[in-house]
Amino acid sequence: MDTKDKKTIFLVDDDVDYIFQMTKTLESMGFEVISACGQKEAEKKIDEIKPDLAIFDLMMENKDSGFILSHRMKRKHPDIPIIIATALTAETGMIFSLEDKDDKKWIKADAYLEKGLRPDQLYREISKVLKL
Amino acid sequence: MSTLKLLIVDDEPGIRSGAERVLRNFSVGYPFMEEDFTFEILTAETGEKAIELIESKSIDIILLDNKLPGIDGIEVLEYIQKNEYDVGVMMITAYASLDLAIKATNYGVYNFVAKPFKPEELKTSVENITKNLYLKRMTQSMDESGEGNRFQFLSVLSHELKSPINAIEGYLKMMKDKQVGVTIDDYKEMIERSMERIKGMRSLISDLLDLNRIETGHKNRNIQKLDITEIAKTVIDSFEPMALQRNIEISMDGDDDIYLNADKNEIEIILNNLVSNAIKYNRENGKVYISLKKKDTNIYITVEDTGIGMSKEDTELLFQDFVRIKNTQTQSVPGSGLGLSITKKMVELYKGKIEVESTPDVGSRFIVSIPAV
C-alpha cells in the first residue's frame, strides 16, 4: 500500500499491552497507528491530530471514558468515524448496541465492538466503517 | 403500584384540603423503578394529632407547617428524630426565618415550600422528596446487606483479573500465528510482558488474601510484643534488590526501642506496601527514607520518597479500593490498586491513622500513627 493512501487510526486504551497488540495487528493490515494510553492523554491528542478513524476503549479512568472521548472527537471532527471497543459485555453482561434508537441518541459513536475479535473480523468491521 | 402515606399537618383547613386535592391523583415515577408511587393522604390540624398518626400509621412523607396551635412543627421534628422514624419531612411555612431553617435542617428536614404555593410547586417538591426517600431506603437496604459495595468490588475485581488474562492471551495468539517472526527471539518482548502481567496478577491475589484477612476479623491473629525497628529492617532488606535495579537508596533512622503489641504479619503488610510504593513510584537514582519515632503515646512510621508525587485531588482518592492514579508516569508501574486501601484498613485495626503529603514531581510522604498501648 502506498504511504500516501495509508489510513491513520487513533487508538486509545488504558492497557499498554492491548495497545501494543492492536498496534501490531493494525499495522500488519496496512494502517498507520497513533495511540494514547488513557482518557487524559487522548484528550490532549484529539486537539493535535486528524486521523481517519478512532478506536476507543470504554472504561478507562472513568466508566464512560470512551463516550466522553467520542463526544469530544465528534465536536472537533464530526466526520471521523469512531469505534468503541470494549470487553464490557463479557465482563458485566451489559449490552449496548447502536441499533437501539435510544442508545444512538447519546452514544456518539459509529460502531460498537467487543474486544478480542479475530484479526479478519476486526478488518471487516474497520473496512465497513471506513467504507473501504 | 406502591402507595406512600403522606401526612399533611396544618391548622388551616384550606391548605389541608388544597394540598389533598393536588396530591390525590398524583404519582411519581422513576426510570429504573418498576412501578410508580401514589399517595394515601392523611391530615392533622395539630402537632399532637400528627404525632399520634406518626406513631400509629407508619407515615412515609410529612408536609409540616411550623406555626401550629399547640406544639409547633419544630417540636414534631424533634420527636421524629428522637424516635428515629424513617420519614421524609418537608416544611410548609408562610415565613421561614433563617433560624427556623437551620433548626429544621438540623432535624433532617428535606426542603421548604413557601405558602401560598402553586399546585405545580407542591408536586415538584413531593416528587423530589419521594425520590430522595426511595433512594435513601434503597441505599440503606444495600448497605445493610453489604450488597452495594460487594457488587462494585466484584465488578472491578473481575475487570482487574481479566485484563491481564486478555493481554497474555493476546500475546499467545500472536505467537501462535507467528505474527512478528519465526524465531522465539522475535517474541522476547511479548514473553517478558506476559511474565510481567502474571506477576501483577499474583500480587493482586496476594492483596486479596490480605484484604480477606482484614474482613474475616480476628481469626489467626497472633498479637505479641514486636520490635518495630527490627521488622522495618527486614522489610528494607527484602526490597533491596528491587531498589538496586533502579539505583534507589533506602535509608532509615529513628528511636531504637520502639515496641508495639501487634500481629507481625499485619505490621509487615503495612510496611511492605509503603516501602514498595516508595520504590515503585520513585525516579531512577531516587531516595527512600523511613523514620520510626515514638512521641507521647503514639508510634509514628514515616515513609518518604523522591518520586513522581501526586496532586491534591489524587491523594483524596488514594486509599479507596482499586484506585490507581493513572497517568503517563504510572502506566507502566504494576499494581493492584488495593495496597493502600489494605494498608489503611490494617492501620485502622490498630486504631491508628494514615496520612499523605505529596507534591507532584517532588515526592510523597506517608505518615502512619498508631497508639502504642
> What percent strand of chain B?
15-25%
Instruction: Detail the poorly predicted runs of chain A.
Output: none
What do we call the CATH homologous superfamily of the largest domain in chain B?
A: Histidine kinase-like ATPase, C-terminal domain
Mean pLDDT of chain A: 82
Describe the model.
The complex is a heterodimer of chains A (132) and B (373). Chain A is of the alpha/beta class and 132 residues long. Helix content of chain A is 42%, strand content 20%. Chain A contains six helices and five strands. Chain A has helices spanning 16-28, 39-46, 65-76, 88-92, 101-106, 119-130, and strands at 8-13, 32-37, 53-57, 82-86, 111-114. Chain A has a five-stranded parallel beta sheet, sandwiched between helices. Chain A is globular, with a radius of gyration of 14 Å. Chain A starts with 7 loop residues before the first strand and ends with a helix. Chain B is of the alpha/beta class and 373 residues long. Chain B folds into three domains: 2-145, Rossmann fold; 148-220, Helix Hairpins, CATH 1.10.287; 222-373, Histidine kinase-like ATPase, C-terminal domain (Heat Shock Protein 90, 2-Layer Sandwich). Chain B is built from eleven helices and 13 strands. In chain B, the strands form three sheets. A six-stranded mixed beta sheet of chain B has the order 2-3-1-4-5-6. The interface between A and B is medium-sized, with 23 and 20 residues.
